[in-house]
Amino acid sequence: MIVEAAQERLVPKTVEQLCEIVAECDRAGRSVRIEGGKTLSGFGPVLAQADLVLATIGLNAIITHEHHDLTCAVQSGVRVAQLAAALARHGQFVPIDVPLCKRATVGGSLASGWPGPRRHLYGRARDFVIGSQIALADGTLAYAGGMVVKNVSGYDMSKLYIGSFGTLGILTRLNFKTLPAPRRRRALIAPLPEATRSRAVSQIAALPVVPAAAFCVEGFGKSVDGTDDIDGRVLLYFEGSDEIVDRATLQTRSALGRAGVPETAIVDTGASESFDRSLNACIANKRGRSITYRSLGLPGTAQERAVGLRDVCNRHELFTDVLFDVMNGDVFVRASERDAERFAAKIGLCHAELRALEPHAVIVASDAPIRATFEPWGAPPPAIEKMRALKARFDPHGTLNAGRFIGGI
Amino acid sequence: MLEQRLIDALGADAVKTAPEDLAVYAFDAYSEGKLPTAVVQPGSTRDVAAAVKIAKDCGEPIVARGAGTGLCGGAIPANGGVVFSFARMNRVLELDVPNRRARVQPGLINLDLSKAVAHAGLFYAPDPSSQKVSTIGGNIGTNAGGPHCLSYGTTVNHVLELEIVDENGDVFTTSVDDAGYDLTGLLVGSEGTLGMVCSAWVRLLRMPETVRVWLAAFDDVNAASAAVSGIIGAGIIPTALEMMDRVMLPPIEAAFHAGYPTDAAAVLLIENAGFEDEMNAHESQIRDVMKEHGATTWRAARSQAERDALWAGRKGALGATGRIAPNYYIQDVVVPRTKLPQALQAVEEACAPQGIIAGNVFHAGDGNLHPLLLYDRGDRKQVAAVIEAGNEILKAAVDLGGTISGEHGIGYEKRDTLTRIFSTEDLATMARVRDVFNPHNALNPEKIFPPGVGCAEVR
């Protein structure tokens, strides 16, 4: 009987411990997989078992919240929702909009570079990082930035680490600038049959009060806004003062009305939960029988890209759920089938066609075994050679998250 | 021969070799470097790439230059070499109104971009005080800020895509939407040491419905500083929140006649933008905060002309100091907002014993101070005193939890002071990036890194 060795997993409680462990692995040639909240393990390739899983959740202190200065500093293993709650106590927030925020860690969320649907209004999460501390493969602990909201002192290393999927080092601490939290949040939800969609999208993009987020959704059943309507709906989120939210409601109802959408429901209590559900849907799997693709691009082309991807999947007789971000242009399409066998039979050719249509679309979620045969990251970006050179300089032995990233990095 | 090869590749119009021309390009707004060997003014990305290959082949360092308004020596040719002036690459290449973005060349003047897109109800937000002259490429090099970055963010928050010529003369692009490392974010603020920007897609914002500008005067600088914290603490992030003090107000008012009170200890210039009813609500909140902190005067600008005049005074402050001193040395430090009173005190304590007068005109909202140390360059004792005081101010800013540059960059001036905020490991880690993009130190040598920070040894 062959028994697979149990995966070794360590949960260091201090940054010094973490550095020691990493340095030891680097010296001994042991591969390390970095683990945060494990919410994005379906994002990217299926990986071979590493020699060691190094979890960051032991680094879970909120180091400081200087609420008068609108800055804070946290260890990377703090959960996103935990940070949000701490900042909310002084009426502040940082827009880290990621799926499964109760589990996702701050470090992991930033390492994934998840773009976030409110970025057109507030900026990306990376725009709020004012300093960082990282543990490199050789055990070096390096600091960048500081605790002030403006800083041009050397290279902005935080930008390099953010979105690097743990391949350059392990984030141990992040300093943020914060924003005053909006007084109110409201969701406006309306059915959106396909015929009305183009006009509605144009109207939404032109609204004088800019929505904090706006999604056009097809499918996803009860997981997004609670209806089974596969014909489509739009979810708009507004934040701000009472006056702003009320004015936005009037403008939106009138704009959607002009687009041929008759009924708009208002959701005040539960608006935040609705927003979280929309985010979560972007990486929700149908157990063993779905793959979710994400395409980034201009807001003006989002609907066209969504329809293009959806139609390819439908031609291969796969079910589809579609969500696109009207304000930023992010498109999520989930292809699925009734069972794993049927899915595996159809997805191969479908994937090839999807790739031909959108060479840069990435696989952001799947637990289907068949996905191991697909390249999840799509075509490498123009500067891939510079990226490989950076990896070689920061992690020459390939100790950290080997193979996790684009281009085999 | 370098000059002939450059002329053959770019045309004689694009190459300068006359000594009087070269002398000009040895300077920027901070200081003077070595005489460059040649100056090129490329007209296209292809020109840039060709010239870089030639310079590399001839073993010449390369220094990129926008308008040369940099305040810490970022554009001076520290080791001579070839200066790349982007003055001819100064156009808006594409304007995409529905997606609110524009593709621009690096030599385009910052304010000209906003003017070019105003007809579509759009503007480019990063607004350094030099914006009438400074260029987008230079702004990208220093991650330029300005008064409005308080709410809109700095240049890096507005750059979507870069087209870069690297140290080999190869061209590559980086986009914030590309999978992979955020090279776009890394390159912004890298002060010409990792590559040269040949074009960029930048984000444009919708002009707000209403803009309001208010003025509050105080008898006491500490009260004004506390009022700044009061506004931020009330949950209002204005679009701009600037402070000027009693040293700066008289020359500013004499030059611009904007209606600044010349007898105040400090004046706050506050701007906010948004919807009319929002601005009404903010106006009464901000007025209450000002009164609470003892403002002696409070008024709102009543017309576009008055708003423009107040801003002209603020942005023209440096020029106006010519009325009160032959020279000034401008500092650029940041402290946490709540430490503003201590920081201003530290400026006073650094300067008074040396007999130096310091004026303050700065971005109070984000704690970014610009002490102006006034002196006469002809008096060597004053020069020494000003340098000493400047060092004291940097030290004080760091001791207060701040940093040594908020927006001007490190350049040549502040290389050695980087060691005050970063350890050897921190700097060696940054040097790993330089090893990838600038292994031969040909791109803007002697900038950012303290001398001696070389390739980190791989353990």
Fold and architecture overview:
The complex is a heterodimer of chains A (409) and B (459). Chain A is an alpha+beta fold and 409 residues long. Chain A has helices at 15-28, 80-88, 106-112, 119-122, 157-161, 194-205, 242-258, 271-281, 302-315, 340-357, 384-394; strands at 9-10, 32-35, 52-55, 62-66, 71-75, 92-93, 129-135, 141-145, 170-177, 179-180, 184-191, 213-218, 233-240, 265-267, 290-295, 319-325, 331-336, 362-365. In chain A, the strands form four sheets. An eight-stranded antiparallel β-sheet of chain A has the order 14-11-13-12-16-17-15-18, with helices on both faces. A five-stranded antiparallel β-sheet of chain A has the order 4-5-9-7-8. In chain A, a hairpin with a 5-residue loop joins β16 (319-325) and β17 (331-336). The longest helix of chain A has 18 residues, at 340-357. Chain A is globular. Chain B has 459 residues and is an alpha+beta fold. Chain B has helices at 2-10, 19-24, 45-57, 110-117, 136-142, 149-152, 183-187, 221-233, 249-256, 276-292, 304-315, 317-320, 340-351, 380-399, 418-421, 424-437; strands at residues 15-16, 38-40, 62-65, 82-85, 92-96, 101-104, 122-123, 159-165, 171-175, 196-203, 205-206, 210-218, 240-245, 266-274, 297-300, 327-330, 333-334, 357-362, 368-369, 371-375. In chain B, the strands form five sheets. In chain B, strands 15-12-14-13-18-20-16 form a seven-stranded antiparallel β-sheet, with helices on both faces. In chain B, α1 runs antiparallel to α3, α8 crosses α10 and α13 runs antiparallel to α14 (380-399). At the A-B interface, β8, α5, β10, α7 and α11 of A face β9, α7, α8, α10 and α16 of B.
Features:
heterodimer, A: 409 residues, alpha+beta, 5-stranded antiparallel beta sheet, B: 459 residues, 16 helices
